[in-house]
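User: I'm putting together a small comparison set for a docking exercise, and I want a reference complex before I start. The sequence is below, and the ligand is flavin-adenine dinucleotide. Could you produce the 3D structure with the ligand included, as structure tokens?
Assistant: Of course. I'll restate your input first, then give the structure tokens for the complex.
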Amino acid sequence: MTETKENIGVIGAGICGLCTALALSSKGYQVTVYERDVAPPQGDADQAFFEWQRRGAAQFRHPHAFLAVMCNLMQQNYPELVENFWEAGARKVTFAEMLPDEMKESYVPEPGDDEMWLLMCRRATMETVLRRYVENRPNVTINNRSNIVGMEASVEEGQITVSGIKLQIERGDTETVLHDVIVDASGRNSKFPGWLTDLGATIDVEDDDAEIVYYTRHFKIKPGEKEPPRSGKDRSAGDLGYIKFGVFPGDNGHFAVILCLPNHETELREAVKDPERFNQICCAIPGLYPWVNEDKAIPTTSSFGFGNIHAVWKHFVKEGKPVAQNYFAVGDAAVRTNPLYGRGCSTGIIHAHLLADLLTEKSDPLERALEFDRRTEDRLRPVFEMSLREDKQGINRAKEIFEGRTFNDNKGFKRWLRAAFGDAIAGASREKIHVLRGAMRSFNLMERPGDFLKDPQIRWTILRYMFRGRERNNRARFQRGPKRHEMLEVISKAPAPVEDQAA
Ligand SMILES: Cc1cc2nc3c(=O)[nH]c(=O)nc-3n(C[C@H](O)[C@H](O)[C@H](O)COP(=O)(O)OP(=O)(O)OC[C@H]3O[C@@H](n4cnc5c(N)ncnc54)[C@H](O)[C@@H]3O)c2cc1C
């Protein structure tokens, strides 16, 4: 154990920055968080959602799901924080509630099932509750409107050592603030790699485009109405091949719908930008209609998008040498995955805790940098690689459908086999609870990705599903809904957006 009184600067009060401050403060560190945005408004979840100027996190108003791994980490370490979420209107969705009707009747709980739960609320609610909790820690200070515009560092024999930051408050003068350790939680557009590169560092970056756009619209259940049941044959989240969709139940009667489209679906991409057409598309999808129809809910926002979705991994150790000492990038500043899988905040909180543990265990800056890299690789790399594989498969499937090819046209036996295996998992998860349970553990990052496939009973079941033929299994991937040409027909009948009518 080392002396735990170092003074740590955390850049960014997004979800990962806040979780880092929380984890470090629990270990006794003095933590100062610098956030360039303003603080959340006083008041409830609606005020945070509708009024908070949150320019620094472009994804702030997109819906977020918080996976079991994150929920359990919070429950085990900060149970009062979890209570605060319930008070703010967040909800718990348990494994039993996620089961399809066919499985519900015969469901017998097993050890571990109670750990498989999701926390559902708007991201604004998550951030505000988390931030208020962190603000109340005696050894954490959060500075708002504090833009970090540079870094204080020395270079000796090619080794960069970071010792502080250059801080600018509300576009005023810049001052240098020194810290023993700097944690970069400034998200996807972190400026630190650029500053480090200016000092001679080389940061290798893996960057893969998921080739999708992601559109959101928020709704509120009408007074006197109840949320539609989540059971039934038409699920509220799924894939039609050319479009993915999902309902994110939120807090206090709010929910959001996402529509996710491959980049090449130009007509549909244009259509979802218009809120009327967005709704028209939703109403044509059987799993979404019960949520978004006019009798059930009212929209509370327009439809808005998020493009440029990439999986990114930044390497902070090159050829066995750290890019910098006393500098640690966490969350999106280091690793990013496709938001469709809802993993970013979970990998962020894992990363934050991993760093806090490491800093208490080791004091040598070089050892810390190398070990942080090793533990990040060990814990997060498998998640990143799984996400990347899923992105590639998603791109291929979307292309197959767009080009009118069938799944049997896959080139090469290996690729066909991999896809057939994936289809068999999808088919078996629909009908066999032990397979679904395993897949859900993996999805919720409760185990290393794919570990459930080591279970002989699960392997045997999947093998049997492979034998029943690919066509049936492949169907299990998709929900009932209009075919692509039918959807194009739907949008062609929709009223033109206001600008087009004017033109
Ligand atoms: C459309 C979309 C949907 C998503 N859905 C989910 C989901 O369902 N579940 C999930 O777990 N994840 C989801 N994610 C991913 C998740 O949003 C991110 O992984 C997560 O927010 C990363 O947290 P972070 O703290 O690293 O970065 P951010 O949340 O981006 O926070 C970075 C913070 O740093 C601040 N900052 C930046 N630069 C500076 C500077 N120079 N000085 C001071 N402050 C600075 C910013 O203002 C911001 O507050 C989604 C992402 C997107 C794009």
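The chain has a mean pLDDT of 93. The first strand starts at residue 7 and ends at 11.
User: Thanks, that's exactly what I needed.
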